[in-house]
Design a protein that fits this description.
The protein is α/β, with parallel strands linked by helices. It has a single domain, classed as 3-Layer(aba) Sandwich (Rossmann fold), CATH 3.40.50.620. 47% of the residues lie in helices and 12% in strands. It has 9 helices and 6 strands; from the N terminus they run αβαβαβααβαββααα. A 6-stranded mixed beta sheet has the order 3-2-1-4-6-5, with helices on both faces. 34% of the residues are buried.
Length: 253
């Protein structure tokens, strides 16, 4: 178990180092949705904290969307065992998006409201750095969504400064593939909270995920080539430090 966590945390550290994500004295809030990605990010950053040369503090924060049946008490217990302060922010996002507004594109409004809620909550606590659980596959999918649906070459950045709020977002999982994340989360028996959102498997992102999955069957290294192209173009904010690590195998199982 320790070997698995050490190996995964090494992948996280490579991303942190390549993009200068953590500075001495940082207070970092980890956005914890309850999914495997954010839970594993929290555990890996806690492990990294024990040996990283730059001192940083961690807190966990969950924006509760208002869906029934989502029990975050196991996440609370995990945070207690890791000695990480945990904050849960209750919202009416589900009611607004699905019941009141009945949005045709609910994911966009939901994401906007979640960002506002979490940024407001952490700045109230005097925290200005937010770690998000977007991984390697999320980056490739976002790039392809922008290309196919918007005709743009674009993606979120590994490090993003939001000038309106003064919050810096970091994404330490960008070198870790979704399957690798799932395997490690399962091995560590993390208390994943299932998401009952009705859009979970009917969104544009799900369409792209299925498309890439089908194409990868014929071209196994396709995602790594897309990711490498994003760094070599480079997209704004995607050029890593000169000592770039070889990530061809980082996203595997």
């Amino acid at each position: 178990m320790e070997r698995i966590l050490n190996e995964f945390t090494g992948t996280v550290r490579r991303a942190v180092d390549d993009y200068g994500m953590i500075n001495e004295g940082d207070r970092i809030a980890v956005g914890v949705s309850g999914g495997k990605d954010s839970l594993l990010l929290l555990v890996a950053l806690k492990h990294l904290q024990s040996f990283y040369p730059k001192h940083f503090e961690l807190e966990a924060i969950t924006v509760e969307l208002g869906f029934e049946g989502m029990d975050f008490s196991p996440v609370d217990e995990l945070c207690s065992s890791l000695e990480i302060p945990y904050t849960r922010v209750k919202t009416d996002i589900k009611e607004v998006v699905f019941d009141v507004r009945n949005e045709d594109n609910p994911c966009s409004l939901c994401a906007k409201m979640r960002r506002g809620a979490i940024n407001g909550a952490i700045t109230e606590r005097g925290i200005h750095k937010l770690a998000l659980g977007h991984h390697f596959d999320d980056a490739v999918e976002t790039f392809m969504m922008s290309l196919l649906f918007e005709g743009r070459i674009s993606c979120f950045r590994p490090v993003t400064f939001l000038d309106r709020t003064g919050v810096t977002q970091i994404r330490p999982l960008i070198y870790a593939g979704e399957q690798k994340v799932a395997n490690v989360a399962r091995a560590l028996e993390l208390p994943v909270v299932e998401n009952p959102c009705p859009q979970d498997k009917s969104s544009k992102r799900w369409e792209i995920k299925q498309l890439l999955g089908n194409m990868t069957a014929d071209y196994p290294d396709m995602k790594s080539k897309i990711f490498g192209a994003m760094q070599r173009l480079p997209l704004e904010g995607w050029a890593p430090a000169p000592n770039i690590h070889d990530i061809r195998n980082a996203a595997g199982s």
